[in-house]
Write a structure and sequence with these properties.
The protein is an alpha/beta fold.
Length: 502
């Protein structure tokens, strides 16, 4: 039996708004081919099929807006070409187009096509030039960076979660700097051109010549994770390490079984930080031990939580397509060291069915699961792992379900209910990471060991809020004493008073 679809040509158009163009033949004019999709782990792009007798063509735009942001190219990764028919699966595909080498679309992406007899995959990568791509090119750029003595520029270099998004404490500080010092250039390190940056900010792709230049010349660097081994501090530079959460689980030098090499790397990394931001006195004590940090951290609360005090959720619900009457459950688990790409520890599809049609479940994976995992697709479930600002999800939701994630310390700013789903508590606590305190004794909400128990607690809350009111209040006093909506302004004021910028 001959294939229903023969693809003769697959190419990416070379214009300001590139698209994937497919041309081919149908086995007969009546073949009901309707759409061609480009399917990645966390993004699906689609284009309609147009026919003329047995000939067909399809165009898939490669620039799209997600979550109401700017129109941007796809995140780096592999995207499979899928064909759709109106009422049935496509019975057979034949592809005659050979694989093609990487093609650079400046400032957007590099892409190459890989084909077999019956499949096609487009691989997108960061838009680096030939002089920037590969180990040898990066070694040359790094050598130039290390030996250069650049003139300082009155600018800030921001990076959040290794450039995977523009979020967290750096984003809140960016907003405040843009307000009080609009004259200062704000550069954001991004993994690729799919990362949306704040208005007025300038994206610079990790590894590009411009990225190396700005990283070496900016007066202020604001990051929320490690700078990595390629960083060389200049005397005129100040590094503000905001970090990204109050810890329950053990980190850095206090992790169980840490190896000498990792311990040395931790201490070397800590030496690069001029200022360390702490959310609360508890975190300050942890950071001193975990990073052998002997200076006084800035205890100012977390800038990323300012929006929890100031902003309204109505617009955000509309952006996510959630009705005003739905009860929204935010499920935000942490990552597992032995299975970092797995996000869904709960089976949110089944969980959503048990909750019923009046509930919407948002699933939010940890930043370490952002690139490797894949979205969950189910009724009344929205996978918001790629949503850039987790704080806005706190505003949208009516309650939080988590396990051991530091979101528990930020969400309590809202005063909304918090539930803990911890079926692997003993293993995670005793074998994998270890805790700094007894979660069961201190939790500001109930702890469930099974999905059925969790569902019952949420749908029949009874006196849960009253029973945990005292614990919740004690939790807020311990972990949120300065999460009052003014953290970003205090941090920026201290930076400017310190003279880190001209």
């Amino acid at each position: 039996m001959s294939p229903a679809v023969t693809v003769l040509s697959i190419r990416i158009t070379d214009d300001a708004e590139p698209a994937l163009r497919l041309d081919g033949l149908l086995d007969e004019p009546a073949t009901a081919l309707t759409h061609v999709d480009l399917v990645g782990a966390r993004l699906r792009l689609s284009g309609p099929v147009h026919t003329d007798g047995t000939a067909f063509h399809a165009t898939i735009p490669l620039l799209a807006s997600k979550w109401g942001g700017h129109v941007l190219p796809p995140p780096s990764g592999d995207y499979a070409v899928h064909f759709r028919m109106a009422d049935a699966a496509v019975p057979g595909i034949r592809i005659t187009q050979p694989s093609t080498p990487a093609q650079l679309h400046p400032s957007l992406f590099a892409a190459h096509l890989t084909t077999t007899l019956d499949s096609a995959t487009v691989t997108f990568a960061a838009p680096l030039t030939a002089e920037e791509t590969g180990a040898d090119a990066q070694a040359r750029l790094e050598a130039d960076y290390r030996t250069a003595n650049p003139e300082p520029i009155n600018a800030v270099f921001f990076e959040s979660f290794y450039g995977q998004n523009a979020s967290c404490n750096p984003l809140a500080i960016d907003r405040e700097l843009a307000r009080v010092r609009p004259d200062v250039a704000r550069y954001w390190s991004v993994a690729d051109a799919s990362v949306d940056v704040p208005p007025g900010a300038i994206p610079i792709v990790d590894g590009s010549a411009e990225w190396w230049r700005v990283r070496g010349a900016a007066r202020l660097l604001v990051v929320n994770d490690w700078l990595r081994k390629r960083f060389r501090p200049r005397r005129f530079q100040t590094v503000l390490q905001t970090w990204h959460g109050t810890p329950l689980k053990r980190i850095a030098l206090t992790r169980p079984g840490i190896r000498p090499r990792a311990a040395v790397a931790t201490v070397l990394e800590r030496k690069r930080w001029d200022i360390l931001l702490s959310q609360n006195p508890y975190s300050t004590g942890i950071f001193r031990t975990a990073y052998a940090y002997f200076a006084a951290p800035w205890e100012e609360g977390y800038p990323r939580n300012d929006v929890l005090v100031h902003d309204d959720s109505a617009v955000l619900r509309s952006k996510l397509g959630i009705s005003d009457t739905a009860t929204v459950v935010l499920y935000a688990p942490t990552w597992r060291d032995d299975d970092p790409t797995r996000v869904d520890q709960l089976d949110v599809a089944a969980f959503s069915r048990e909750l019923g049609p009046d509930y919407v479940v948002l699933i939010r994976g940890h930043s370490r699961s952002l690139r490797g995992g894949s979205d969950v697709h189910a009724d009344n479930v929205i996978d918001v792992t790629t949503y850039p600002d987790a704080s806005e999800l706190f505003l949208v939701s009516d309650m939080l379900v988590t396990d051991y994630s530091s979101v528990m310390f930020d969400y309590s700013v809202t005063g909304k209910p918090i539930y803990f789903f911890t079926p692997d508590l003993d293993r995670y606590r005793n074998q994998m990471r270890g805790f700094y305190f007894d979660l069961l004794a201190a939790s500001p909400g109930p702890v469930a060991q099974s999905a059925a128990e969790l569902t019952a607690l949420i749908t029949n809350p009874g006196d849960t809020a009253a029973n945990y009111a005292e614990r919740y209040s004690a939790w807020q006093k311990k972990f949120n004493p300065k999460d009052d909506g003014g953290a970003a302004s205090r941090v920026v004021a201290r930076l400017l008073a310190r003279g880190v910028l001209d």
